[in-house]
Amino acid sequence: MTRLCEARVAIVTGAGRGLGRAHALELARHGARVVVSDLGTTRDGRKPEGEDDPAASVVREIEAAGGQAAWCREDVADWDGAGRMIALALERFGRLDVLVNNAGFVRDRMFVSSTVDEWDAVLRVHLRGHYCPARHAAAYWRDRSKAGEAVDARIVNTTSGAGLSGSVGQAAYSAAKAGIAALTLVQAAELGRYGVTANAIAPAARTRMTEEVFADMMKRPEGGFDAMAPENVAPLVAWLASADARDVTGRVFEAQGGVVRLADGWHGGPEVDRGARWEAADLGPVVRRLLAEAPAPAKVYGT
């Protein structure tokens, strides 16, 4: 087997279960030394009582297979905690090459019934939880680049189909994931000069956040290929983390089972230029003409 990430150092957030666990194990299988970061919270972000720490379990799995890993229990959305996460990678392994932002939780609610606390909590863990670790990592890579070192670093963010198309009952989650997609584009544009690429994945897999909401889709098959196993997404993450992906940046990939799809972002569509200010009463026919000429939008999940 070709080990794509030999000697590279990676941090994976939310790596105790589901997709994050699969990413950490796959990166380690490809030779990376991995910081496994997870707070061990429940599906809605609350700490369970009397449960074994999932990040420590993943570290043990990696070490039992002959790899190197370090356990980290920092809040990804806490500025100082995220800084300590980066510092841990440097202290234990001497460098940092890859940051996989994966941590998150859901508090699903129809928009009209949602609370501001639920909104703040979901945006905090997803959007701020992507910002804080990446901001510390980017500063480290910029400093290395300015010192004359050759930097070949990666940010792999986690958006969602909900962020690309919207999802009924998940307004906060959809908004946060859409923000992550846009953040990825800005990171790619700004950090390339320092040797850093930034890409995002929109995975579809069986996790605690999906197995109840999409129960039929996520059901384990009785036999054959398990298309919704989170392990199916991890190879794309390992490749994006590798040296082979140094020329790929600012992209969003959808991954499900054996499917890898390049997602296409917003583009300008049909237009009409009057050459002067419009009267509001004249715009009805114009807008309807534009809608008739444009492709139909993607359906919102749950409609």
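The above is record 1. Record 2 follows with the same two-line structure.
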Amino acid sequence: MFKQTEEHVTDMSFKRKIIIKDDPILLAKQAAEIFVASASRSVDKRGRFSVAISGGSTPRRMHKMLAREPYILNIPWGKIHIFWVDERCVSQNSHKSNYGTAKRDFINEVPISKTQVHLIACELSPEMSAKEYQKILSDFFSFEPARIPRFDLIYLGMGADGHIASLFPGQKTICEKEKLVVDVKGGDPNVNRISMTLPLLNQARHIVFLITGEEKARTVQTVLEDRKIRLPAKKIQPQNGRLTWLLDRGAASFLSEDLHHDKVNE
């Protein structure tokens, strides 16, 4: 079983912050500002910035902003390393490909080397593709077999069913404790997928949920207010890290009044 590194073991708590923006555009701007600030801080402290991004429609606004001023000018692109929290096993040219979409939205538009873009390749079988991506993580972070790598920043979306990455309710992969990356089948479209697991996600220094739309408001309320529910999104609890819920008014529309503003739980 993987062990936490020494810098994690003394404090298992995490800070949660809820930020509510009036609309998806303001939410995207806030997400882009978090990217810029985290990149700058990480490069200053550790000499590089490791970020894992998600697919779906919500982060696309942020991705496109990163390739435009003022953000593109304030990001140390030569020190940025981009990973994906999950990927559908489809052609990279497909509009369902997380990598392909991000490539069109911003990667092709920013000064970043191909060696700094660590896509999930699904050219092998799903099982072998998952093992290959775990090896990519191992090579990049140079961690021992019993250690879990720590991303500087991870962006997550959430499905209306409470799934995160490609970890779906009721599937055994949500309980995975040994592997950092798994293969799974499910979701919409119902295809083979490769996904990071909870042990890896929860080691991040900062995790940011990006959620928009009233169709997800009930799930947001359930995850944030119902202590008994064990949806996948509820299991995101960074080990000695920070968790930010970045919501638009629609997604936050069912939250209780005491959560309907910026709030930090420590």
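Residues 6 and 92 are 38 Å apart (CA to CA).
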